[in-house]
Amino acid sequence: MRLEILLYVFVMALTTYLVRMLPMTLFRKKIKSRFARSFFYYIPYAVLAAMTLPAILYSTDGYLSALAGLAVAVVLSLLNQSLIVVSLAACVVAFLVGMISF
Amino acid sequence: MAKNESPYRYLQGLKDGIPIGLGYLSVSFGFGISAVGEGLRVLEALIISMTNLTSAGQVAGVTVIVAGGTLLEMALTQLVINLRYSLMGITLTQRLDDRCHTGHRLLMSFGLTDEIFALAASKPYPVGPSYFYGLMTAPYIGWAGGTLMGALAGSILPENLRAAMGIMIYAMFVAIILPPMKQNRGVLLTVMLAAALSCCMAYIPVLNAVSDGFAIIICAVLAAVVMAVLRPISDGEEGAP
Question: For residues B93, B94, B98 and B99, what is the CA-based torsion angle, rounded to 10 degrees?
Answer without folding.
Answer: -30
